[in-house]
Design a protein that fits this description.
about 350 residues, Neuraminidase, four-stranded antiparallel sheet, globular
């Protein structure tokens, strides 16, 4: 049964207030707490439990991960019960990790987005419930430069960003988290706007104030080999399993499928394979299924109904230069954050654990 944010939010708000009061770290910015107000609940006694001792980074969800031109993987920030601003790098497909910095220049956060642009630098955008800053690193996440403290798009989390072949960045959707009230926006403001930057995140132009897809958060987005953008799922008041495509940098959108074969979900991960297919993995409600599309998201085939990794959401997946998929971390149905790392060399059909869980 799908977890519906809008039918359970009052319980979640009270529950998460208790978690924060029990000692979880929050970031203050513009008077809004960077804490979970309407995200799926965690148990305060288990969120900090070490699930995997060998990964190095603390178990977490809603971090960001990117693949660098040299094939290394960089992982940044996320929610471990508090919010993090550490960065880690692996040069061996996630088997071992090196701490690049324990405290990056940007304020601690989760629910942000990151991309790697053609010059090999990382651009990090928003997140943390109420941020719209952008940051850049040219040394695998070791040091960071503020590109803008306040981008044109409103402060938000759970948005997605993609980098286009020309090096421009396109940012889509998300939500602004506001304190709970009795008003119509008591669960946050959802967006379906599209923004683009051609200067490494310094300035932004609104491409579309209201895209064809409904305002939402927790969706996933990818860039296809033909430079089109495909957007999948998310939450707009209900979990969605629709698929949309843009062939003009997010200006206009065509619905590819109103109800894909995979169940409605949020906080899943999607990647594009070297052959141009899309692979979608997991998501709330704690799924561990894997699906693949060969036609820009129009139709989907289930690759596996139950992957070797436990059902989860808030994980991150990336594709390596050779076509293998690396899946990292997340939050599983036993209310535990994870730091496990898995690899698939057959488009998500089978998976091998890269670190030994404890």
């Amino acid at each position: 049964m799908n977890f519906n944010i809008h039918t359970s939010s009052i319980f979640i708000l009270v529950f998460l207030f208790m978690i924060v009061s029990a000692g979880c770290t929050s970031i203050q910015n513009s008077g809004v707490d960077s804490t979970w107000i309407s995200t799926p609940p965690m148990n305060s006694s288990t969120t900090l439990k070490q699930i995997n001792a060998s990964a190095g980074w603390l178990p977490r969800m809603d971090h960001s991960s990117v693949v660098m031109p040299d094939g290394s993987v960089v992982l940044m920030g996320g929610n471990y019960g508090g919010e993090a601003n550490d960065t880690w790098r692996s040069t061996d497909y996630g088997a071992t990790w090196t701490l690049m910095t324990a405290h990056a220049g940007w304020p601690a956060r989760a629910y942000h987005s990151c991309v790697v642009i053609p010059d090999g630098s990382i651009i990090l955008m928003g997140g943390g419930s109420n941020m719209n800053d952008t940051w850049r690193s040219t040394d695998y996440g070791a040091t960071w430069t503020l590109m803008t403290a306040s981008a044109g798009w409103s402060a938000r989390e759970y948005h997605t960003s993609v980098v286009m072949p020309d090096g421009s960045i396109v940012l889509m959707g998300g939500r602004s988290l506001i304190r709970w009230t009795s008003g119509p926006n008591r669960f946050g403001i959802f967006y379906n706007d599209v923004w683009r930057s051609t200067d490494k995140g310094v300035t932004w132009t609104q491409i579309n104030a209201s895209a064809g897809w409904s305002p939402r958060w927790g969706h996933s987005s990818v860039v296809m080999p033909d430079s089109s953008i495909v957007l999948m799922g998310g939450e707009d008041g209900s979990f969605r399993n629709d698929v949309w495509r843009s062939t003009d940098n997010g200006l206009t959108w065509t619905q590819m499928n109103a109800s894909a074969g995979w169940s409605p979900r949020i906080d899943h991960s999607s990647v594009v394979m070297p052959d141009g297919s899309i692979v979608l993995m997991g998501g709330a409600d704690s799924n561990n299924d894997v699906w693949r599309s060969l036609d820009n998201g129009a139709t989907w085939t289930q690759v596996t109904a139950s992957a070797a990794w436990s059902g989860r959401y808030g994980h991150r997946g990336v594709v390596m230069p050779g076509g293998s998929i690396i899946l990292m971390g997340g939050f599983n149905p036993t209310n535990r954050l994870m730091s496990d790392v898995w690899i698939s060399t057959d488009k998500g059909a089978t998976w091998i654990l890269k670190n030994t869980s404890t």
